[in-house]
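ok so for the tutorial part 2 we go from a plain amino acid sequence to predicted structure tokens. step 1 is just haveing the sequence, like this:
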Amino acid sequence: HGALRTTTTTTSSSRRQRRTREEEEKNFSLLATTEKGRRRRRRQREDCCDEEDVAKRAAMIGGIIAASASVVALASPVVTARAETKFLPIPQTSVPETTSCGNFSPERLQIAREILICNQESGAKNWKQACLSHYAPNVEYTDGPGLTRVFGRENMRQYLKNQFDFSRQWLSVTDEACDKDKYVAEWNLSMDLGIGSFRDLPGVTVLKFMEDGSDLVKYHRDYLPDGNIVERQPVVGNLVKFQRETYSRCMASKEGCVKLLGGPVDR
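step 2 — the prediction. this is what the tokens look like for a chain of 267 residues:
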């Protein structure tokens, strides 16, 4: 019995010592982990509170907010434009009441006017009769913004088809000048596009007739500032509008535009 008690006591003591060591190791591990956590959190707080880093984070968040606001703002003009298209009345095409212009014959003047007011409507104003039939086989055309150049009557046919497939147009000639084989007209253009209605956009057209005395047009150039149209476009519209308004204001101010837009470098 004495030997058994001694063995039992030794075994119990060993178990207690083992449990004590395990608890000490566990506490040490927990202490080390906790200390690492404290140091990590302390470094995070220090990094977070760095003024330069805070400024960068604030700028990044501000940029995200501004971009989101721009997307919302840009969407509004498009929705408004489509609503306007539904309610704006359809305008009329028109030409001056005069029957003469410079040295032009009445027939040539009529042809020039037909080219200007031709559109998508059926009948005498339709582009196939009023425009295409009056062009020379080698006609050269440049559109209003100057982005597209067309050579040849057959290519012009495709251009006009594409134009009146995606737009509805009504043009009113307000003034005109005729000299030899050249016709120049000022006009106002109204359009309905997918992005909205536009009314009374000012522009100019130059027509040149063949020198052989025929009444075929060999050259057609439109001039139409497209700022108002681009301003309705998503993404770039607001930027273009802001740029144009800023330029207009500084050009009319006493300070001028040098500080805002910079100036040429002296060489």
